[in-house]
Amino acid sequence: MTLKRLKVVSIFGMFILCFLIHFLYNWFPNALFSIFFPVNESIWEHMKMMTSSILIWSVLEYFLFKKFRINHNNFALSVLLEVTLSIIIFLIIYLPIYHFTGSVFVLNLIVLFISLYFVNVISYYILNLRPLHKEILGIAGIILVYIIMGILTYNPPFNYIFLDTVENKYGINIYEV
Questions:
Q1: 86-141 per-position pLDDT tens digit
Q2: Distance from C-alpha of 43 to C-alpha of 112, rounded to nearest angstrom
Q3: How many structural domains comprise the chain?
Q4: Residue 173 DSSP one-character state
């Protein structure tokens, strides 16, 4: 298996993993899961679904790199960029569509897939770069992203991105509108 082939598999693996991750907090509600998995149906909480699928898949991907002896560099930095850029890319594509159509399940899936495609392409190029020796920066960045997600889960801004339109509440469903 080559790096390119593995990144193609990763797009689909992450996409499928999103479906499982969507429901994990509902199945096992606890403080740890609230940081990594969506606690409501807000746009922001679904960013956790995407980023956690990337993080979980990346752990599997790391072992696949070893198993298939795939040369790569800058793994943690690549994962950090995948996690952060997935949020940015998704929101840039999704928010204009959301303003015109509202939440349409099929469009949501298409935007999710496109976002995962782009971050895997970017990851492919980062993994092919010469070693940048910034792995500790990548690990620290991933931890920081999840600290921010945890804070925003428990203390969300009163903004439509953080509003659970199903329950009409913010955050971990403790702030009613």
A1: 999 999 999 999 999 988 999 999 999 999 999 999 999 999 999 998 899 999 99
A2: 12
A3: 1
A4: T
Q: C-alpha angle with apex 20: 87 to 50, nearest 5 degrees?
A: 5
Phi, psi values for residue 149, rounded to 5°: -60, -40
- Write down the pTM of the prediction: 0.93
Q: Where are the alpha helices (DSSP H) in 102-175?
A: 105-128, 135-154
- Sign of the Cα torsion 115, 84, 54, 165 reads negative
Residue-wise pLDDT tens digits, 35-68: 999 999 999 999 999 999 999 999 999 999 999 9
Q: What are the tokens at 147?
A: 């600290």
Determine the structural domain holding residue 88 and report its residue range.
3-176
Distance CA 107, CA 99 (A): 12
Coil/strand/helix, residue 164 = strand
